[in-house]
Amino acid sequence: MSQDNNKSSESAHEQSVKYVPPKVWVQDKDNGGKFASINRPTAGARHQKALPVGDAPLQLYSLNTPNGVKVNILLEELAELGVKGAEYDAYKIDISEGDQFGSGFVAINPNSKIPALVDHSIFESGEPIAIFESGAILLYLAEKFGKFVPSSLGKARADCLSWVMWQMGSAPFLGGGFGHFYAYAPEPLEYPINRYTMETKRQLDVLDSHLKDNQYMCGNEEADYNIADMIIWAWYGQLVLGKLYDAAEFLQVSDYKHVQRWAQAIAERPAVKRAIELPLKPIG
């Protein structure tokens, strides 16, 4: 290697080691990574694009990522029970192409993240109801149809809501933390990978300890299967089954025997099998 190249390499390493955050951050360069081309520090629509609306009462705009699969599972479980009014049309929002920044999608989800759902059932207001955030959508649908969530105040409902909120608070450390730095960042960095690996394994241990004495997240009977299982399985179930980030060996997921048992049982449900491969219509 030439002397100039050596100096250049040393300089780049030195800059990385000595990075000090500025007093005011500005986006003055590409931050790299898989989604660098669409990441911006601003919200709102970037282009005009109306969303299609089908004939079903529920319109889902999503992608078959872990966050999207959560809603797919509940909708397919409702379909498995033959619940009337839970019919839906599902449309693909391709986040790699920036579909989430179209004006129609931003109108139903100002945060520009999948999934989003619009309920076109007839309400007193006469207006369709838009719901965003996967946890909100699952709770809305479960309560609307009286399925997969305990309705009475008490321990069963408290347990369900506690685990649903656990997932909402914990999964960003898995997806945006571990998943980003392990699989999507422009280069592997030891500190963030170690930091988020430790937290991901701690979360798996939380689940493993809990599932040691529980068939499902909220009990041992088939009737105890609910939205807590669905929302947690989409991330952590798929993770321990080797479906996320090609990280099963790295995380030693086989160590979490009780999570493995639970994850495999849910993966074998007909509704879940359909949900993870749900056909999504193009938005045009």
UniProtKB/TrEMBL annotation:
Top-level lineage group: Bacteria
UniProt signal peptide: none
Residues of the GST C-terminal domain: 156-283
PROSITE patterns, per database record: GST_CTER (PS50405), GST_NTER (PS50404)
SUPFAM superfamilies: GST C-terminal domain-like, Thioredoxin-like
Region of interest called Disordered, as start-end residue ranges on this chain: 1-21
GST N-terminal domain span: 59-149
Family note: Belongs to the GST superfamily.
NCBIfam families assigned to the protein according to its UniProt record, in alphabetical order: PRK11752.1
UniProt-recorded name of the protein: Glutathione-dependent disulfide-bond oxidoreductase
Organism encoding this protein: Psychrobacter namhaensis
